[in-house]
Amino acid sequence: MITATHRQERTFLPSEQQCPFCPRPDDPNAEVPVADYEVAVIENRFPSLCTPPPLPTVESNAISQVRPSEGRCEVVLYTPQHDATLSDLSVRHLRKLVRVWADRYAQLSALPEVEYVYIFENKGKEVGVTLTHPHGQIYAYPFVPELIQRRHEAMRANPEVVREWLRFEVEEGKRVVWRNGEWVLVVPFFARYPYEIHIVPERPVANVAEADERHLDDLAEALRVASRKLDSLFGFSMPYILSLVQHTEPWSTLTVEITPPYRTATKLKYLAGSEAGCGVFINDTLPEETAAELRAARHE
Question: Minimal CB count within 10 Å: which of 5, 121, 269, 286?
């Protein structure tokens, strides 16, 4: 758990005229004091982690152990267009975005205080977004989060586990949504959310920094297809959480996971007792059926 009380005062759903992520060349105090940009990376003004960190406000003891919140928090601005979304961006533009991810992952992973780099995007008020300008975030943690650690322990124990699972999905085909030369879009048989999409590489790659040019180019296309299919599913711009799960170890396999909160066009999936209390997700749909819906959804 991280305590960051100053985040209570962070910007909350400003108008376009007040958006801190829009270009403002006449305002030297703006987050982006330039006339234009393509993809930009800035420091988070309300970070959960920072270097150097402030001293803890409570003392550590055997029961409640405390450490400084050392690390980095960055914001990745996808485009200067305030009302755009990931699905509005061209493949050419997304190729630049994934290369920015790769650069930041490499730079942050090399820092001595950083143990894990998490690249993600929160999209939509339904998942708690406080700034609607298209952007993602990067958290460079001084530890490996417990959920990620459990996943990586499974991959360390069997480096082929992701390959074996992907081979199973491709052979069955029922849950595969789309594929190009390098990546497969699949609603996994263990999906927690009805329209959860995993983007998995056909050739193993541990993280975006180690991906070759073809990996990155095809990942950009896969991201656009996935986001456009989700947007066309119910006829509105689909909220989601997008996560890059990756590591610097050779046994790891990069996976991009997109978890939309809607289970129908008018109903959200809430995390209730079983999910929040026990971590046991209950999916109200069959992955085979939702994958078929996503296959049929437009992405042109």
Answer: 5
Instruction: Give pLDDT, residue 162.
Output: 96
Sheet bearing 40-43, strands edge to edge = 40-43, 72-77, 135-141, 116-123, 240-245, 255-259, 197-201, 183-186, 176-179
The string of pLDDT tens digits covering residues 36-56 is 999 999 999 999 999 988 888
Closest by Cα among 241, 21, 287 to 121: 241
Is the pTM for the entire model greater than 0.90?
A: yes
Contact 67, 88 (CB under 8 A): no
Whichever domain contains 125, its CATH number is: 3.30.428.10
Q: Catalytic site residue 82?
A: no
Specify the range with the lowest mean pLDDT, choosing from 45-54, 259-268, 288-297: 45-54
Out of 133, 135, 152, 299, pick the active-site residue: 135
Domain count for the chain, please give it. Answer: 1
3-state class of 86 per DSSP?
Answer: helix
* Separation CA 32–CA 41 (nearest Å): 10
| 176: β partners | 186
